[in-house]
Design a protein that fits this description.
- The structure is a homodimer.
- Chain A has about 425 residues and is of the alpha/beta class.
- The first copy, chain A, folds into 3 domains: about 80 residues, Orthogonal Bundle (Arc Repressor Mutant, subunit A), CATH 1.10.10.10; about 130 residues, Nucleotidyltransferase, domain 5, CATH 3.30.420.40; about 170 residues, ATPase, nucleotide binding domain (Nucleotidyltransferase, domain 5, 2-Layer Sandwich).
- Chain A has 15 helices and 16 strands.
- A 5-stranded mixed β-sheet of chain A has the order 6-5-4-7-11. In chain A, strands 14-13-12-15-16 form a 5-stranded mixed β-sheet, with helices on both faces. Chain A has a 3-stranded antiparallel β-sheet with strand order 1-3-2.
- In chain A, strand 9 and strand 10 form a beta hairpin.
- The longest helix of chain A has 25 residues.
- The first copy, chain A, is globular.
- The N and C termini of chain A lie close together (about 10 Å).
- The C terminus of chain A is likely disordered.
- At the A-B interface, helix 1, strand 13, helix 10 and helix 12 of A face helix 1, strand 13, helix 10 and helix 12 of B.
- The complex binds zinc ion (ZN) (2 copies).
- The site of one zinc ion has 6 residues of chain A, from loops.
- Chains A, B: It comes from Streptomyces mordarskii.
- Chains A, B: Belongs to the ROK (NagC/XylR) family.
- Chains A, B: This is ROK family transcriptional regulator.
- Chains A, B: Pfam families: ROK.
């Protein structure tokens, strides 16, 4: 009973803007056809987005024999969005225009001793100031800042990160950031950022049920079901990396054994390589990135060890993806993140074959498996998209742009839960 | 982009009626509080349900010092619903009043040679006629007939059943049934019927994200996510029984190896027993039902073999349920169907312990695991509920009650897809 007609209106606003971002310039009639919304609803939502300065009228096109049709386009310079990708060793910040084109970038390195909350917040605030200054954007044009944190983000904006050199437990990050950053803030993790990026700009656009599988050091599955991000009751859905593939199998850092991640995450793939060929020159024992890149080059050159490692990895990954297909029956599975990018098409081909040998016929026939088609960093793009969604969700609740004073008080910040279920 | 404001209105209608069914008599104010809908919306929806004859005004209650509040209740005798549970060896039909109280029952046995589509349809039609006659209900009071088929049901109402003595491949069952049954028809499978029953009358009521795990000969997981049934792109989501628990493990009839079903379905539990104690008197080699019942009695008596078999089964089941918790982060997991009923509380206790040892801390802390609390057959109840939902979804599209002629033509039948996404 938590979805309201306001949620539907917000979702429709997303749908209209998504289509205009992708197809500008475009007529209202085309938007209606693509979104399956009524012409009246589209006219109304387009009017709202024009009033907000997010769209502009850009002329007319002839329609066969009928009246010329008005065209609208994204008002690229109408506003700016900022996406922040915090990883274990760096902070990457991008400022986008409304067409989600990058206008400015800033990077900060995080040294091993610099990951306490105060230092991380200072680095983020510096990088945000830097991109705003570089782009020469007026502060009141910044619709919001999306921040992706490599960990668990709770409803109140607390963050827990358990990584090699990190140990954050329920750090009130949203509050700390709000003390230093004068824009609306939206906080989530990379898994969900990538999923939202695919929904707006990638392979999940226009799909009702999609799964975005992140293959990196850790692995996870972002779930876009019924057209919306599935978060679960405590915003922690998607921990596919910690589902069991081999009962009593390899030890996982989560405490369980045989988790998917231990077979198809970067350290798992290194182990697959070590088990097949312990002395392979492809193996860089202390460097995941170098090993995965060496495997990628090996595949291109037809190196038999690289081919075999990817075949073995694809057998594990295929079984674990077949589980997602059988359980969720999605239209598309997108393979994302740096391991998927490094192993690319050869991995995809092997994975498709492995899945075909395991998934049930009927859901299998309805699922496509593709590589992430987004050419830039999907995490900072997705983080900025959270800010875009947040500002669209708040339309009609209060006009933030005319009351900038409101934005500086933490109690007005949108929390992750606010973004999806405005009350 | 497929959800519309009509969908929201339909979902809100479900929510209001669900609450009134559970709490009759009840005031609009209480309904508004329980559903989180505005008082105006509730007043409007209650008015609609009063006009339809589904609710009645039943008097007033005092409110502290204020005006007396009007009470509404379900108009039990206002209409009837029929639920059909087709299994491999029987057909069980129940006719319910609007409070979902059973008014009449009919059972038909299906002999091994009687499962061709024509014979099954004739048995269903006979049983439906029988319950209408027994209950003495006028034909125009029957809102619809929900039919649960033990197989895959596609969007157009075709059914495939692959069971011991069955081999139905894309049988156009909805069309065949429509030739013999003069009521609106709604077709789906037992997994989804049980899930809808839990949403309306059981442990999923008022929960946004719930998983209903069916433990029978086959096993599956009905997914109620974001408050609605998740069907997937080809209406085949929920095949958790065919996700991999043990890579390269026990051979499954689906062609894969190591599926969850081979460890925790009734034949899998028999195998667990046979591996632990091949000569146990609990084992009835050709009779699943007798074996599971013997295990249930053994648990009550503290039989060490029964205790050990359930411990082993719970270890498998706990790992597979932890997968659902980590991936979907639900509020509640409901254990349903005859195996869960037969092994009851002792199984539940072992399963909770096994899950606690495997699931991630954060989603685990937010998930309850319970036994199905519905005292009657949840499949026929859920099938009837599909008919109730279907009639609520069609309110405002056309008034079926005043144009009964419409109902007899197959092209007006709601298909499974129609029920969830009215266009
Ligand atoms: Zn794990
Ligand atoms: Zn199977």
């Amino acid at each position: 009973m938590k979805r309201t007609s306001r949620d539907i209106r917000t979702a429709n606003r997303y749908g209209v803007l998504r289509h205009v971002v992708a197809q500008s310039p475009v007529s209202r009639q085309e938007v209606a056809a693509a979104t399956e919304l009524s012409p009246a609803t589209v006219a109304n939502l387009v009017g709202e987005l024009l009033d907000l300065g997010m769209l502009v009228e850009v002329g007319y096109e002839d329609s066969d024999g009928g009246r010329p049709r008005g065209l609208v386009a994204v008002n690229s310079s109408g506003a700016a969005l900022i996406g922040v990708d915090v990883a274990e060793t760096y902070i990457h910040v991008e400022l986008f225009d409304l067409a989600l084109t990058v206008l400015a970038r800033a990077d900060e390195e995080l040294r091993p001793r610099e990951n306490d909350p105060g230092k991380v917040v200072a680095h983020i605030a510096d990088a945000v100031s830097s991109v705003v200054e570089q782009a020469g954007v007026a502060a009141d044009r910044v619709l919001g800042v999306g921040v992706s944190m490599p960990g668990q983000v709770d409803r109140e904006g607390g963050v827990s990160v358990f990584a090699a050199n990190w140990d954050w437990h329920d750090v009130p990050l949203l509050r700390l950031l709000a003390e230093h950053i004068p824009y609306p803030l939206y906080l989530d993790n990379p898994l969900r950022a990538c999923t939202v990026a695919e929904q707006w700009f990638g392979a999940a656009r226009g799909r009702n049920d999609a799964v975005v599988v992140n293959l990196g050091t850790g692995v996870g599955a972002g779930l876009a079901l019924g057209g919306t991000l599935h978060r679960g009751v405590s915003n922690s859905a998607g921990e596919w990396g910690h589902t069991t593939l081999v009962l009593d199998g390899r030890q996982c850092h989560c405490g369980n054994q045989g988790c998917v991640e231990t077979y198809v995450g970067a350290p798992g793939i290194m182990r697959n390589l070590r088990e097949l060929s312990p002395d392979s020159p492809l193996l860089h024992p202390d460097d995941q990135t170098a090993t995965i890149e060496a495997l990628g080059r090996g595949l291109m050159e037809g190196d038999p060890v690289a081919v075999k490692v990817v075949h073995t990895t694809a057998r594990y990954l295929g079984a674990a993806l077949a589980d997602l297909i059988n359980l969720l029956n999605p239209e598309v599975i997108v393979l994302s993140s740096w391991v998927a990018a490094a192993l690319g098409e050869p991995l995809l081909a092997e994975v498709r074959a492995a899945v075909a040998g395991r998934a049930l016929r009927r859901p299998l026939a309805n699922t496509e498996i593709v590589l992430c088609p987004i050419p830039s960093n999907p995490v900072s793009l997705g983080a900025a998209t959270f800010a875009l969604e947040g500002s669209l969700a708040s339309v009609g609740r209060k006009n933030r742009r005319t009351t900038p004073g409101d934005r500086a008080t933490p109690r007005n910040r949108a929390t992750p839960r606010d973004r999806t279920t405005p009350s």
